[in-house]
Design the sequence.
């Protein structure tokens, strides 16, 4: 993607896109557009209200040719998320018309720093042509965009010729970063949207190995025999009903030089959650192919971090298995062991995510002693009932870490909301027969008691954060009529790694 800067209105691409928020200088923009197109302000206002994702196309003469001018609505008080959504929608619907390049007029935008607006726009542009119809025999006929040949021309206000060097670099960086994040999101949307029969745990492992080779990070995959030897008994207990053996994917990215903070990222990789013998109702069971959304966030972040050469030492750990029904399945009431040595009474085989995470978290702490320990999981329906699809649940024993993640969430639109993990909640997880049980005694505060279960296996790590992304990993979008993958977590984590 070629980036060109322009300090005055004009276009070399033939298409000008002006993002317009529904407040402030809205009027100024309309009179500006009126002066350029020769169309009256009144007519333009009839055609365009500035609602989020709304578009209006006009034409104007410049440099002896006819150029297209697109007003792109951002709605009221737009942030990063709205920018992404608007551009994603624009490119989803008009990808063909815009495939050679666009001129982006950011002069009118007062809602953020140019590099942030550009990052958001590029994220939306690159994801816009996403095609969820991977397994259709007849393709939708949409051409993909060749980003190498694409020209992105940006008009920005306040660009002083004397500072152009620095600013241009900053903006070029923003474009590159955003494209890398979008490409990771795209792949992970593919992986989360893929049906369970096309993505057994071995498929996740193969993806990681391939990506590691391509972008220079280390990937080790522990398979059945190794997991038995290591004593990954909770992961193995969940896997008992499945025809596919489990894997533990361990990825490590180290920056070339200097000492760096060590960050452990753990992601739930349940490739399909039937509930096991505590079987789920069938109505929405097909959505449970998305139960590896946490794993996707970790895999995508590993690739993006390696490509961006972030100055952090990153450990990614993904325990992966299907949760299935079989004569061999773990039964409600069974007592199992775990990597930590602690015993667990399995009251409900549908609370399987916490079991495989218990092993993965404990493994990560004991073998890598990370400075920060973060996990992401589509863990509980309770979290969806609490926060809906507007935010992921955040649980942490470290206020500074929680604040950093909350702030980044607000800024990127991948919002989190913190819930308490007071010790009193742990009472509910005590078992009569084993060290802990996997289901709370009462049906209340399920997302919190799940977090307390996880905490029990972190060896009292002092900077741990758990993100329950059950409500945000899979949702509505322009790409599909049913729910589909959102790519949630990758941008959030990359921003975190840049800040930490
Ligand atoms: N994978 C589910 C959680 C989930 C539900 C994710 C809906 C996305 C959408 C998890 O393994 C699960 O089944 N949790 C149970 C826990 C309960 C048995 C304590 C739940 O939330 O009902
Ligand atoms: Zn479950
Ligand atoms: Zn699950």
Sequence:
């Amino acid at each position: 993607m070629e980036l060109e800067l322009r300090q005055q209105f004009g276009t070399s691409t033939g298409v000008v896109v002006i993002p317009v928020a529904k407040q402030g200088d809205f009027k100024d923009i309309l009179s500006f557009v009126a002066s350029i197109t020769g169309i009256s302000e009144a007519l333009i206002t009839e055609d365009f209200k500035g609602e989020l994702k709304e578009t209006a196309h006009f034409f104007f003469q410049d440099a002896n040719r006819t150029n297209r001018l697109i007003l792109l609505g951002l709605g009221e008080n737009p942030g990063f998320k709205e920018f992404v959504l608007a551009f994603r929608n624009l490119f989803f619907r008009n990808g063909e018309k815009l495939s050679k390049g666009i001129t982006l007029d950011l002069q009118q935008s007062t809602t953020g720093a140019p590099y942030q607006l550009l990052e958001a726009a590029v994220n939306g542009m690159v994801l816009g042509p996403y095609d969820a119809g991977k397994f259709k025999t007849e393709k939708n006929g949409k051409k993909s965009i060749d980003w190498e040949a694409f020209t992105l021309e940006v008009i920005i206000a306040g660009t002083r010729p004397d500072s152009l060097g620095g600013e241009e670099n900053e903006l070029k960086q923003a474009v590159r970063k955003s494209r890398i994040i979008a490409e990771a999101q795209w792949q992970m949307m593919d992986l989360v949207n893929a049906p369970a029969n096309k993505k057994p745990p071995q498929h996740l492992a193969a993806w990681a190995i391939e990506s590691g080779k391509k972008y220079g990070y280390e990937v080790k995959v522990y398979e059945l025999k190794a997991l038995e030897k290591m004593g990954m008994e909770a992961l193995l207990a969940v896997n008992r009903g499945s025809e596919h053996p489990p894997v533990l994917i361990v990825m490590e990215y180290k920056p070339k030089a200097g000492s760096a903070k060590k960050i452990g990222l753990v992601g739930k990789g349940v490739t399909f959650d039937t509930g096991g013998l505590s079987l789920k109702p069938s109505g929405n069971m097909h959505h449970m192919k998305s139960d590896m959304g946490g794993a996707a966030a970790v895999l995508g972040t590993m690739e993006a971090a390696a490509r961006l050469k972030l100055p952090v030492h990153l450990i990614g750990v993904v325990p992966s298995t299907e949760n299935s029904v079989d004569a061999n399945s773990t039964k409600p009431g069974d007592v199992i062991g775990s990597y930590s040595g602690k015993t667990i009474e399995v009251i409900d085989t549908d609370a399987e995510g916490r079991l495989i995470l218990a092993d993965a978290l404990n493994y990560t702490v004991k073998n890598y002693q990370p400075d920060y320990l973060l996990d992401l999981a589509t863990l509980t329906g309770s979290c969806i009932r609490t926060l809906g699809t507007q935010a992921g649940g955040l649980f942490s024993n470290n206020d500074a870490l929680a604040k950093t993640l909350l702030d980044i969430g607000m800024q990127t639109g991948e919002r989190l909301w913190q819930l308490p993990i007071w010790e009193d909640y742990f009472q509910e997880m005590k078992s009569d027969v084993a060290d802990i049980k996997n289901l709370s005694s009462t049906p209340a505060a399920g997302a919190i008691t799940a977090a307390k279960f996880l905490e029990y296996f972190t060896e009292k790590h002092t900077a741990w954060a758990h993100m329950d992304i059950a409500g945000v990993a899979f949702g509505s979008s322009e790409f599909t009529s049913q729910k589909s993958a959102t790519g949630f977590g990758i941008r959030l984590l990359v921003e975190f790694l840049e800040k930490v």
